[in-house]
Write a structure and sequence with these properties.
The chain has 6 helices and 6 strands, in the order αββααββββααα. By secondary structure, the protein is an alpha+beta fold. The N and C termini lie far apart (about 35 Å).
Length: about 160
């Protein structure tokens, strides 16, 4: 079994750092290598619908990642939420106008990004269940120290805010 730091050192996980030089993180954001490939390859290719947002999908994702890492409060909106229809899987998602990012919370104020896709593609293909199952599978197969995820059901169980 390994810690998050050890998994980063062995290149199983990578830290996502959306901060500017000199800014300090309040929370940590990690990603599987498959997610990094999606972030670099597929996310920039998602078609942008200006009816959703002024920001492109990649700008939306990095904006929500920035807000998470600096410790902004997410409790009053739906940008970060637990998927309640499968509470035993303990899968959470980041939501932007056009993108969904699935992952889990290994410890308070840390999130591991596992899969991402466009909102439209997920709705057309009814793929929420598939992403939830795949995220749980990746987590269960990862050589991460137990407990591999927090089983809290509320925002305050998994996140503290900087303000």
């Amino acid at each position: 079994m390994a810690t998050l730091i050890e998994l980063c050192e062995s290149r199983v996980l990578e830290v996502i750092d959306p901060l500017e030089a000199g800014e300090l993180p309040w929370r940590m954001l990690y990603a599987t290598m498959e997610f990094i490939e999606w972030l670099d390859g597929e996310l920039p290719e998602i078609e942008h619908n200006i009816l959703y947002s002024d920001l492109t999908p990649i700008e939306q994702v990095f904006a929500v990642f920035y807000e998470y890492v600096v410790g902004e409060n997410f409790s009053s909106d739906r940008r970060f939420k637990k998927l309640h229809y499968t509470p035993d899987h303990h899968v959470w998602e980041f939501k932007t106008d056009e993108v969904r990012v699935f992952g889990w919370v290994p410890q308070k104020d840390a999130f591991i990004c596992c899969f991402g896709d466009s909102k439209d593609n997920i709705e057309v293909n009814s793929s929420y269940g598939r992403y939830i199952a795949q995220t749980a599978y990746v987590r269960n197969m990862m050589d991460l120290d137990e407990p591999k995820c927090l089983e809290g059901r509320s925002y305050l169980d998994v996140v503290s805010d900087a303000h």
